[in-house]
Amino acid sequence: MNMIDAVNHKLALLDEQSLTRLRRVVESPCAPRVVVGGRSMLAFCSNDYLGLASHPRVVAALREGAEMYGAGSGASHLISGHSLAHQLLEDRLAEFVGEHLESPRALSFCTGYMANLAMLTALGADGDAEIFSESLNHASLIDGARLARAQVKVYPHADVQALGALLASSNATSKIVVTDSVFSMDGNLAPLPEILALCERYNAWLVIDDAHGFGTIGASGRGALEHFNLRSQNVVYMGTLGKAAGVGGAFVAAHSSMIELLIQRARPYIYTTAAPPALAHALLTSIDIIGSDEGASRRAHLQALIAQLDRDLHLKRWERMVSRTAIQPIIIGSNEEALRIGAGLYGKGLWVPAIRPPTVAAGTARLRLTLSAAHTLEDVAQLTAALNELEDLR
Ligand SMILES: *Cc1c(COP(=O)(O)O)cnc(C)c1O
Predict the structure, then answer these.
(1) Of 11, 27, 163, 210, which sees the most CB atoms within 10 A?
(2) 184 touches ligand 1 (CB under 6 Å)
(3) Residue nearest (by alpha carbon) to ligand 1 atom 5
(4) Which tens digits make up the pLDDT trace of 155-180?
């Protein structure tokens, strides 16, 4: 076999298992209604939970940021790329989530993926470090744990007892528990108060990935720590800024000493060009909106949309997972049926992604619909009517 044949063989194997992924080209801004191939589609697939990605104030702030700071940062943070815009954003974020931490400080990143690699490699660098990782964690946490070269122990989903037993039997001087707060493919919440109690008891760090919680949960949108009313110096908190905040990037907030360690030691932080400062400038407006009355009413509308799904979706064969967040999965089972239903919805002008293994466990292929405060009640009514109809057609 020549080299290209070998690659094509791998692709053919994916195709046989209905695992080939397809990118669709979106020709309009991120919003519930998008243009794809010249056709208007009603989309339930973005992570723009609050509808800020196309918010006029955020877009205006991005334009203003470009005028103030130019297009690019020009260098990594430790050379000359750390702009006043980044510093103001970090100060604002530290203040925003700071009441849940001791001696809070925040550090901004280009992406959540890199923030996770940075946290876990910096924390897991000690010779005998152990990472205790929740089984449904996001791929970026799994990769971060691998890159850290620490011992990794995976505990079963939401199983506080199993985690406690692992911590109790560990002799590591550096223990790191890591979990998503809102699980990306299921939409449910991790039992963070119980997990934090264990971390405090066993002197473990608790790394929380709040990619789907920041902006969407907690009365003022401060995320999982506010939702559960937690405060601890053991917490290393990661929030993404490309989901509810509508722009891009991420941040870690933690005790100031931990943040200093990341700046000094985390290679995914040190060896990359700082994000364009205009993004940081736009994010100041996003954070203002998230914490304002407007943010609260956007979160309330999101809950009204979820309540409407509860009321109008009548599933018989498929299973809707219990979720009070914007992530609303419907388990179909087989890859083929999930793809067929996804295509059926698409034919009706509704865009809902089918999620298959390895992103989720084999036999649990699903439709993962995500709601946004930019959706209307009518949008959701259109979706539930189509789903109820497609489930009846075998
Ligand atoms: C999206 C996501 C990330 C990655 O964040 P990006 O900013 O998109 O790189 C990390 N963790 C979870 C749970 C996510 O959903």
Answers:
(1) 210
(2) yes
(3) 112
(4) 999 999 999 999 999 999 999 999 99
